[in-house]
Amino acid sequence: MRSTPEVEVFEARYDSYGGLEIAGWYCRPRVHKGKLPGMLFVPGYVSEPKLPTDLAMMGYATFSAAPRGKLRSNSDFNPGYPGLLTHNMDNHETYGYRGFYVDAVRAFDFLVGLPEVDPARIGVQGGSQGGALTLLVASLRPDRVKAASAGAPYLCSMLDAASLTRSYPYEEINDYLRLHPDRKDKVRIALDYHDIHNFVGRITCPIIVNIGLRDDVCPPETGYALFSAIGSKDKRLYPYENCGHDAGSGIGHNPIMNRFFAERLQPEPVRRP
Length: 273
Prior knowledge:
This protein is α/β, with parallel strands linked by helices.
């Protein structure tokens, strides 16, 4: 029902951490020569996974993951929004993002394993929580991710971010600690285990990061700190002075991102009939 003359659309499912079945949308050009470059799209905190026909039209075999708690992946785990950020936040072994992170990495592995996808040409992209998951996948699959773009990255220096803003989702942390001040040490341990800042030294692929200097959701201070910690020698930061959490996507960053991936993954854009 969602396919077009140019793009085939599939609902896909895969098994992940704890035996949960995770859903996603897979889109690919209907007609193509040889193997396709792959693209993993990972979603934001409150947004549902996009139907990535636009990326398929650019020539990518694209998987848009719906990690646990998102629509079609929420039958067994559904802490809600707000809710996910603080789910079991006082225990690093059962914290809600533990499985959520694995879902993102498994989505990448799913895409790599598809027969029409060239495993040497796979990119990852997303904004906000999707920016964090992009960085996570690039960190944990450094030999497989060939290019990555992270916008307004979330889940970075989380306790610092919660002290710098009163906007949600980070305000969920402040709300939780106001109710449970005695759990702060356990919360710090759990968040440190899952803080994206502590992963990104493993990244080796070309990567771009864009931030908004007026972002009151993901403070730009945490974006600068995170970018400095990225291990790749081929990295570039795009700070947008008058932008908030959109991080420049509304004033011209998207074409920059599209060129970045096209130069490194070499897709063949789909021609309309």
